[in-house]
């Protein structure tokens, strides 16, 4: 947990959640949904060349005090801190993204992070991925696990890795042995600094809504509801872009970053 003053109640206020009375599956579902509906996935820091940190106090300051969001590693690390503060047994797992929304690819090894939470049975939790489930997934579950965000299946590879399939698409593969935050330093340094890594040149932002999700990819705003794309359009006007970004994600930008021309959302 670190040696700083981690205020669980302040974190719960940040996500609009009451302190659970019990450490159980129902409370975990509640906390995961509140987090995904309150703390956006966003890569603003990378676009502005202000590289983030996975260290406890810096993360707490960014997400709780400054009311920002973050990338997958930031969001899942922060959520793990909250869960540990509430008494949940949490293990960090390293993962590799295998689909970017348009086609299969081999993402950076350890470029993604997911959480294993031990309760009556082990659960998979992810609050930092565009195609993540809204509720925890049963690690021992077989067959489809239906969720407001789609249909999920978990498979184990011959080597013992965990694979997540969402709506028929293989999204990521994770190792099952525990990882420490320091294990992600090298891979994330590459993702946050390399000109070949898309996160340093393209803007992503996304937050869960009661009926689905609202995402921004560069200047393209896309809204999903009940699993279907509701609309998608390019925000060509700077004033509208800045207003929408602050309204949706709670982040005020001084100016629109220099972004690639994109016509398709995610």
Describe it for me?
The chain is of the alpha+beta class. It has two domains: 8-185, Arylamine N-acetyltransferase fold (2-Layer Sandwich); 202-266, no CATH class. Helix content is 26%, strand content 26%. It has helices at residues 8-14, 25-38, 44-47, 56-65, 72-85, 185-193, 238-249, and strands spanning 41-42, 90-97, 112-118, 122-125, 137-138, 145-147, 150-156, 162-166, 169-174, 204-208, 212-217, 220-225, 228-234. The strands form two sheets. Strands 5-4-3-2-9-8-7-6 form an eight-stranded antiparallel sheet, covered by helices on one side. α4 crosses α5. Pfam families: Acetyltransf_2 (PF00797).
CATH class of the largest domain: Alpha Beta
Class based on secondary structure composition and strand pairing: alpha+beta
Q: Cα distance, first to last residue?
A: 34 Å
Number-wise, the strands total 13
Number of domains: 2
Family: Belongs to the arylamine N-acetyltransferase family.
Protein name: Arylamine N-acetyltransferase
Pfam families: Acetyltransf_2
What's this, in brief?
The chain is an alpha+beta fold and 266 residues long. The chain has 7 helices and 13 strands. The strands form 2 sheets. Strands 5-4-3-2-9-8-7-6 form an 8-stranded antiparallel β-sheet, covered by helices on one side.
């Amino acid at each position: 947990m670190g040696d700083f003053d981690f205020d669980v109640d302040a974190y719960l206020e940040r996500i609009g959640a009451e302190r659970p009375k019990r450490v159980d599956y129902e409370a975990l579902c509640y906390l995961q949904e509140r987090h995904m509906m309150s703390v956006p996935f966003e890569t603003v820091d990378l676009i502005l060349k202000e590289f983030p940190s996975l260290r406890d106090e810096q993360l707490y300051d960014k997400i709780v005090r400054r009311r920002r969001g973050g990338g997958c590693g930031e969001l899942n690390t922060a959520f793990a801190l909250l869960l540990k503060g509430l008494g949940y047994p949490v293990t960090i797992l390293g993962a590799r993204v295998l689909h970017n929304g348009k086609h299969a690819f081999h993402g950076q090894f350890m470029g993604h992070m997911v959480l294993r939470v031990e309760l009556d049975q082990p659960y998979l939790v992810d609050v930092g991925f565009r195609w993540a489930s809204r509720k925890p997934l049963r690690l021992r579950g077989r067959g489809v696990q239906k969720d407001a965000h789609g249909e999920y299946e978990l498979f184990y590879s011959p080597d013992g890795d965990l694979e997540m399939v969402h709506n028929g698409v293989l999204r990521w593969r994770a190792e099952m042995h525990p990882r420490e935050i320091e294990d992600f330093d090298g891979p994330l340094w590459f993702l946050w600094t390399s000109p070949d890594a898309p996160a340093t040149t393209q803007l992503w932002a996304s937050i869960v809504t009661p009926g689905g999700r609202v995402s921004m990819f560069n200047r393209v705003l896309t809204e999903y509801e009940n699993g279907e794309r509701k609309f998608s359009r390019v925000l060509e006007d700077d004033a509208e872009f800045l207003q929408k970004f602050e309204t949706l994600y709670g982040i005020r930008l001084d100016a629109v970053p220099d972004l690639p021309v994109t016509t398709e959302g995610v």
